[in-house]
Amino acid sequence: MIRRATPADVPAILGLIHDLAEYEKAAHEVRTTEEQLRAALFADAPAVFAHVAEEEGDDGEREVVGFALWFLSFSTWRGTHGVYLEDLYVRADRRGGGHGRALLAGLARICVERGYHRLEWSVLDWNEPAIGFYRALGAVPMDEWTVFRLTDEPLRALAGRAS
């Protein structure tokens, strides 16, 4: 089952974020707190959204086994919003059950229903299982593009606020 995340899902989503960071060999980079995530996802006018995949656990209770965290982008060439998928993750022991596809299909439906022309995301170049999965859905890599990022001291320096 795929549904919009609720405030009660924040601990599970944060746990999955930590699992994802570990998988991507970047656990040391996660600084997000439950409070930050709750504030971002459930503000009066949120700019970030999340959907969760859940299934019945061994104890008969529903449990979150995956999530998609996304925000709106805008295409100057298309003149419409799009969805940028920041993170998609399904617990390793629940992969292969259709949760990742269902999360992406839910975001695709949002795009189609709202007239958005783009659903896009980044994937690490060594993550062959994910790349194969995305290609099987018909997604194409944007090989001619390179992602750039400013964080921490370089970001503060450019803003004129070096610490």
UniProtKB/TrEMBL annotation:
Give every N-acetyltransferase domain span: 1-153
CDD domains, per this entry? Answer: NAT_SF
Q: Which keywords describe this protein according to UniProt?
A: Acyltransferase, Transferase
Which SUPFAM superfamilies is this protein grouped with? Answer: Acyl-CoA N-acyltransferases (Nat) (SSF55729)
What span is annotated as the signal peptide, if there is one?
Answer: none
Which top-level group of life is the source organism from? Bacteria
GO-annotated molecular function: N-acetyltransferase activity
Cross-referenced InterPro entries: Acyl_CoA_acyltransferase, Diverse_Substrate_AcTransf, GNAT_dom
State one Pfam family annotation: Acetyltransf_1
Into which family does the record put it? Answer: Belongs to the acetyltransferase family.
Identify the PANTHER family for this entry: DIAMINE N-ACETYLTRANSFERASE, GH14572P-RELATED
This chain belongs to the protein called: GNAT family N-acetyltransferase
